[in-house]
Predict the 3D structure of the following.
Amino acid sequence: MISRISWVLLAASLSGCATYHAAPLAPAEIAARATDRGFDVEAVRAELARLAPNAAWDGQSWNRLTLLAAAAVASPTLAESRAHAQSATAAARAARARPSVTLTLTAEYARNAPESSPWLYGLTSDAPLDVGARRGARIGSADFAAIAAHYDYAEAVWAARMAIRRALADRFLATREVQIGEELTRLRARQLTALERRFQAGEATRSELERVRAEAAGDARRFADAQARLIAARVALAQALGVSTAALESAPLAWDAFDAPSAASDAEIIHMRNDALLARADILRAAAAYDQAEADLRGEVARQWPEIHLGPGYTWERGLVKLPFSIGLVLPQLDFAHNGVRAAEAHRAEAGAHLEAVIAGAQAGVDGALAERTAARANLARVRNADLRAARLAADQSDQEIESGAIDRVDWAAAQVGLRLAQLGEVDALRRVHAADAGMEDALRRPLEGPELAMAPAAGDKR
């Protein structure tokens, strides 16, 4: 009889077993795929429909929203964060499983037994009583860990969005700087040639010639720096998207109203400030970490009490059936878990201090970003209304004067060089504005303008 019971229990346990499937990874193959990874247009289209169901896309032009969808498809960083969130969710489901029951089979043979059978068969069990605070604390801790992992994924999506925004802005700005630098290089060459003729004719001094040469050398260094920034922006954008730089070069990039960024007013941002503090994923993640520490503390307190085990059994003793039942107690540690409780209390206090620090940092970030945004926009307005306007008037005047013969090529080139330098100043001021807008969005954890406004609420963390 015991043999039949054993076989039945063994068959029942094996029928519910999962099977192992090997999934080896070869680093060389992963590296080879990364070198030529491109855009999967259909996958991007499906991801775009999930992120922004009402957004239209022709499959050709790539703006910030479609690039974010591409990153969600191809970025290894987002894939890692997404896998972590899925793993934490699976761990939370596993935490609900009841502890295993221990079964013990026994047999005994009595030599020269007076009974009809010399054999004794027995089956005992040990079932932990998984109820109360212990079970609740374990499940609660796993649930909060899963919630925190999903907030981590939301932060990773936002970080990818900001990396795309900044890299794309750097690319447009560096491209413009390179174009202006090429024009400036040609103008400096013409200015130097004309000035050398004037010097040879005795109409210019050596110091004037050397001054212009030094300015030309400075322009050349600035041009080289712009080329380096353009390369860095291309690499950063490709890295944020998870595609190769070669694939990115063939993709037409778009940013509507890049020269005139229009975001929310300061009053609107101040109104958004308190809402942002309740919606930032890093704050919600810190709050979930505090709740997890609270659940861990409840679990440590519950460990001060004995753990109860139930032990029903079955015994066939030489023709006599017995049904024993036992209750076991696993006593707490010798210090009654006081050290564990104190450690859990310290961890909870640490999590609370971290939450307060994150909230304070977010508040300071919003205030600082708002001040910088105001200053950056004022600086751009000054450059455009004063410096650039004056330089453009001087350049237009020089065109008229050289046609009338009032000035020569040296003075004309100087005015044209001044205009290009003012244009570079405008690029620098525009760079500061875009950096300030990015900082403002990063502090609020929400886009203030552009195609990302079409995203569905919390679409980034529901995958």
About this structure: The CA atoms of residues 371 and 436 lie 9 Å apart. The mean pLDDT is 87. The longest strand covers residues 307-317.
